[in-house]
Amino acid sequence: MMKVLIAGGGTGGHLFPGIALAEEVVTRHHRNEVVFVGTERGIESRVVPKEGYPLELVKVQGLKGKGFVSLLKALFALPLAFIESFRILARQKPDVVVGVGGYASGPVVLAAWLMGIPTAIQEQNALPGFTNKVLGRIVRVVFIAFEEARAFFPEKKVQLIGNPIRRKLMDNYLRSHVAHERFSVLVFGGSLGARGINQRMTEALDSLGDLKDSLHFVHQTGKNDLESVRKGYADKGFQAEVVEFIDDMSSAYARADLVVCRAGATTLAELTVCKKASILIPFPHATDDHQAVNARALVDAGAALMFRESELTGEKLAQTVRELKSHPERLKSMEKKAGLLGRPEAAKELADVCVDLMVQTWGPNGRERTPIEAEKKAPRSHS
Ligand SMILES: CC(=O)N[C@H]1[C@@H](OP(=O)(O)OP(=O)(O)OC[C@H]2O[C@@H](n3ccc(=O)[nH]c3=O)[C@H](O)[C@@H]2O)O[C@H](CO)[C@@H](O)[C@@H]1O
Q1: Ligand 1 first shell, C-beta below 6 A
Q2: Cys-Cys link to 357, which of 39, 116, 118, 335 (CB 3.0-4.6 A)?
Q3: Cβ atoms of 105 and 377 closer than 8 Å
Q4: Would residue 277 count as lying in a domain?
Q5: CA 165 distance to own-chain centroid
């Protein structure tokens, strides 16, 4: 029996690896528990309750600055979030705390460390964010997904395991290979959508008119561009499903012959596990340009093509789609190379280490809990 507290979120790229860990933990034993800590405005406030896990909220702002000392200062300058974190940890009594990045991760992991609870962080990107770089010094284990991230953390703590993928996404994906007649392009801009991608793709349609009847698009726009993108496809006579957000990414991937997307780390992990060929357009304003560094790993392996948004015209994008469509053997080779980078076992490996941390710290049964606390752990079922 183990209780894991997962702190962080904000965007899907941080939260979904946490959900993947949660799924692994609760399917191992019906009395295992997972609690999330996030913020009201993060994607977690919508997704976590839907997934059936309890969510505690803290009020945190982004932390910017440089160096360990300035982060500590910034964290202590947020006394409310910090006090809330202590309270949550005292109430929840987790055996292990895992930070997945995003606003809530910093104060909660720091508070857990001060309370003597074993901590770990999971860094999704090739270049770690500021908070994780600092938390790396205090946590017991640092999980990374790209070799490039190793250099930013104490060597002995690092475990390169890849980014955990949601079990539901994997299971459904394996079951949902769909036969389709048209060449299907999945277009999406990370968990929030991407204006740059929305614009380039609608511009690209102008140069793809002759292929209209053999192309099918599934396009996720994010909140703001839904109507204009929908209109773009409709006015130009293309067959397209245009949505604000895709709930079922497994069937979206399953139907795609080609994916056009940003280079968020969780997206890339999914592309490799699902063996998909992709055109990557990294988010140009990502901190330290980390999306381009993420993308490089796939490009160097021959699994993807990458274009800088500033250099990519609609016409160039159209030409690339056209070329890949007319060279299925090239697409196949990209798919194969993507598959070689996939780490489908990441969630399991992460959960194994959580068990080790619990056993080392609290013994094989975890923390002592009063009979009432233990009783509250009603057996849960998880689909
Ligand atoms: C702007 C920004 O700072 N983005 C960061 C954020 O990206 P972001 O939150 O966009 O994350 P990713 O691209 O890594 O992952 C997106 C996740 O959302 C899911 N999804 C996406 C679209 C959709 O309609 N439905 C859906 O479920 C995908 O399947 C995937 O699981 O976190 C990533 C992981 O730390 C970073 O690499 C990104 O740089």
Answers
A1: 11-14, 16, 101, 124-125, 188, 190-192, 220, 245-246, 249, 262, 264-267, 270, 283, 286, 290-291, 294
A2: 118
A3: no
A4: yes
A5: 8
Q: Compute CA distances 164 → 14, 122, 143, whole Å.
A: 11, 9, 10
Say whether both 38 and 140 belong to one domain: yes
Contact status, residue 313 vs residue 321, Cβ threshold 8 Å:
no
CATH no. for residue 97? Answer: 3.40.50.2000
Of all protein residues, the one whose alpha carbon is nearest to atom 23 of ligand 1 is: 246
Of residues 241, 106, 103, 120, the one with CA closest to residue 185: 241
199 among annotated binding-site residues = no
State which of 41, 221, 266, 280 you would mutate to test the pocket of ligand 1, scoring each by most atoms of that ligand within 8 A of its C-beta. Answer: 266
Query: Which atom of ligand 1 is the closest one to the Cα of 43?
Result: 9
225 shares a domain with 132: no
CA dist., res. 106 & res. 134, Å (int) = 9
Instruction: Report DSSP letters for 49-95, one per residue.
Output: HHHT--EEE--------SSHHHHHHHHHT-HHHHHHHHHHHHHH--S
Place of tokens 């396009």: 219
- Whether residues 107 and 215 share a domain: the answer is no
Instruction: Give me the phi and psi of 199, to 5 degrees please.
Output: -70, -50
Within a domain: residue 381? Answer: no
Which of 11, 123, 188, 244 to mutate to test ligand 1, by most ligand atoms within 8 A of the CB atom?
11
Q: Tell me how many domains the chain contains.
A: 2
pLDDT tens sequence across 44-89: 999 999 999 999 999 876 555 557 776 766 666 578 888 999 999 9
Domain that includes residue 29, residue range: 3-165+344-375
Structure tokens at 67: 């160096």
